[in-house]
Amino acid sequence: MKNLNLTGGLVFSQRVLLELPKQGVSREDAYKIVQRNAMKVWEEIQQGKPTVNEKGESLYLNHLLSDEELRSKLSEEQIRECFNYDYYTKNVDAIFKRVFEK
Question: Could you tell me the CATH number of the domain that includes residue 36?
């Protein structure tokens, strides 16, 4: 988790990018929204800004939640769901079981 937090939440950009077209946003516009916010985070990380706030929320999540264009397309709940680690770890037990049973 520590390594993932070092990205400032940028690892979740793909999920946001995939969610926007489900809400009727063109892929091109979705990319612009995601990229705009990702670049802000990348610049802040390069400047040494902490990658998470005191609540443990990532820089990227904070930027997305304050992006008016994005908020007109996705609710806070939809945005936060894109940052759910369970999406990426849901099959870990099955994978370990398959690997170590051999």
Answer: 1.10.40.30
